[in-house]
Amino acid sequence: MKIRKSVPADFDAILEVINDGAQAYRGVIPPDRWHEPYMPADELTREIAAGIEFWVAEEGGAVIGVMGIQDKGEVALIRHAYVPTRGQRKGVGTQLLKHLQKLADKPFLIGTWAASSWAIAFYEKNGFSVAMSAEKDRLLRTYWSIPERQIETSVVLADARWRRHPGAAR
Predict the structure, then answer these.
(1) Which of 7, 109, 146, 154 is spaced 20 to 30 A from 30 at the CA atom?
(2) Is residue 31 within 8 Å of residue 123, measured between CB atoms?
(3) Is 116 within a domain?
(4) Number of domains in the chain
(5) What is the domain-level CATH number for residue 68?
(6) What average pLDDT does this structure show over 19-24?
């Protein structure tokens, strides 16, 4: 498996991986937060324009996982981390996450759906911890541009660097 920064020609493959991997959320996240497709092409275009840099895991010329990183000044966000359904639980996400963590020497934060216990367990297994509710709301309002309803139904996970960061709640 090779991990590399995405190029414009990867756009369709990134979109396909996101929408396939996101099927795990169907029937799990609140129904008012689910839509089909989970991420339309225009939303992916906006996310890239907002500074999310996508990285892809590739095997045999096929994209088998995607993960974005977004620099927010004092922190870096992991955004849109997906592996297609057929390739999940094979270490692709872990390798992408470890690669992205090497790209920035600053705290990392991850937002995900509160109901996605498997995603939370994945990040906890990789050294992240769930932020307390009040801190979670503050972090989501500070570093993400998401609707209030999504803030209500999400969690934030932080790495060990965040826990040592002056802005972290103690």
Answers:
(1) 109
(2) no
(3) yes
(4) 1
(5) 3.40.630.30
(6) 96
